[in-house]
Structure formats: C-alpha cells, structure tokens
Amino acid sequence: MRGHLILISGFSQSGKSSLASWLTSVLPSSIHLEQDSFVLPAHKIPTLSNRTDWESPKSIDWKNWNQRIRQELKHPQYILAEGLFVRHDQTAVQKAALIIQLTIPYAIFLQRRKNDQRWGHEPEWYLQHVWESHFKNERKEKGTVDLTFEYLTQSDYFDIYERIKSLPF
C-alpha cells in the first residue's frame, strides 16, 4: 500500500503549519513534513541587503526534501508536507494526491509577521520583500491546486479533513 501526499502551500503566516499539525493530530497514520526543516545552512542561501533571503526556493535542500517524501510514500499513511515552496519542485507535485493553497490578506500577513519574533525585528522593506516574493515564486510553481482558502476558519479545517479522508487507500 502507498501513502497519500498532501501538499499545503501558501503565504508566510497563512496557517500552513497549524493546519498540518491539526490534521496530523486527527488523521490516523499521518506525518507532518515541514519544509522549514529542509532549509540549507544560511551560508548557502542568497542574501538581500546583508539579510539571508529565506523567501527563495534556493533556500531549500530539494534533494533531501524529495528523498524524504519518497521514503514516506512507501508507507500507508497521510504525508502532510507544508511550506512556502512545496509546489515549486515537480517531483513532489506529480506525487501529490491533493494540493491545498492558503492565502491571507496583506494586512493580516503584516500583523502576524510583526507579532512573530522568530526572526527578530524585520524592517518594512524586508516584510514587503517577503510578500512580493510569494507572488514572484508562485508564478513559477506548477501543479493544479485542488483547494484554495483565504483566511482559514475552523469549518475549513473540517472540510479539508473530510476531503483527505475521502482519498482511497
């Protein structure tokens, strides 16, 4: 039996990790792959005005990302793979049983990003770069999106759960 790969793509702060974590808690035999765990060392990532440019697909270790997905697909489970660039590489897109896209309004993005202190203080120009990078890289991403949500709600979580549970094993 083979696993089901569910790709969760979207803006920074759109709820990708929260959705994947919740789904992992309610779906039997499921695993959450965070693309953030497959980021290259900072010295291998392009910079922008002396800041590491995490908003680039070049920041991802694609070889290890795809290897891990291949490994997990050998097992009868749901693989919830989430990140900014999950649709950027065709290897995973072609294996996906379901692709979910999350979006949020700019004002919500700004509010959440400013409240998130993981990266320390981020200047306004960099926040604008983060927002614009999504659109720039989104144009390069491939694969049909099966479900799109702007500003996820609790009922959306259950709709997504039902859609995933309908996938045949």
Which SSEs are present, and which pair or pack?
Blueprint lengths: L3 E7 L5 H11 L3 E5 L12 E2 L2 E2 L9 H12 L4 E6 L6 H6 E8 L2 H10 L8 H15 L8 E4 L3 H12 L4
Parallel strand pairs: 1-5, 1-6, 2-5, 6-7
Antiparallel strand pairs: 3-4
How would you sum up this structure, described in words?
- The chain has 169 residues and is of the alpha/beta class.
- The chain has one domain (4-165): Rossmann fold (3-Layer(aba) Sandwich).
- Helices cover 39% and strands 20% of the residues.
- It is built from 6 helices and 7 strands.
- It has helices at 16-26, 62-73, 90-95, 106-115, 124-138, 154-165; strands at 4-10, 30-34, 47-48, 51-52, 78-83, 96-103, 147-150.
- It has a 5-stranded parallel beta sheet, sandwiched between helices.
- The longest helix has 15 residues, at 124-138.
- The radius of gyration is 16 Å and the shape is globular.
Give a brief description.
The chain is an alpha/beta fold. It is 39% helix and 20% strand. The protein has one domain: P-loop containing nucleotide triphosphate hydrolases (Rossmann fold), CATH 3.40.50.
Major sheet attributes: 5 strands, parallel
Widest β-sheet, arrangement of strands: 2-5-1-6-7
Fourth-tier CATH superfamily name: P-loop containing nucleotide triphosphate hydrolases
Shape: globular
Q: What's the number of extended β-strand segments?
A: 7
Query: From the helix content, strand content and strand pairing, which structural class follows?
Result: alpha/beta
* Gyration radius from CA atoms, angstroms: 16 Å
How many domains, as an integer? 1
Overall mean confidence score, pLDDT: 90
- H/E topology pattern: EHEEEHEHEHHEH
The helix content, as a percent range, equals: 25-40%
Helix run count: 6
CATH structural fold name: Rossmann fold
Strand percent estimate: 15-25%
